[in-house]
Amino acid sequence: MQDDPSAPEPTRAPWSRTLAVGCFMVPLGFFSGGMIAVLVSKVVAFVTRAPGCDGVPTCNWLEHMLVGAAIGMTSLPALVMWTLRAKQRPER
According to the model, what pLDDT value does residue 36 have? Predict the structure, then answer.
């Protein structure tokens, strides 16, 4: 049954749609990765009992945010584009 010649060929999303969705995911990945990294920074500061700074989550939050944002803005679009380009199975 799996090799049914009458079954439709699995399709992929067109490149234009995939690229557009990937570009839309870049700022979302930037901000979400940055926020997660600042949360990790806050947890690390709590565990290591680092001295606090007034008015900011941790003293070195910007370094963590930039690294997390860079990871987020590359990994989220790549994951979404990879998922969109995967062959989709036909519905039964």
Answer: 96
Contact between 84 and 13 under an 8 Å Cβ cutoff? The reply is: yes
Instruction: Round the average pLDDT of the chain to a whole number and report it.
Output: 86
Domain ranges of the chain: 27-85
Angstrom distance (rounded) from CA 25 to CA 85: 15
If phi over 0 gives left and psi between -120 and 50 gives alpha, with beta otherwise, what is residue 49?
left
Average pLDDT over residues 50-62: 86
Helix residue ranges per DSSP H, 13-60? 15-47
What is the value of pTM for the model shown?
0.75
What are the backbone dihedrals phi and psi of residue 88, each rounded to the nearest 5 degrees, phi first?
Answer: -90, 135
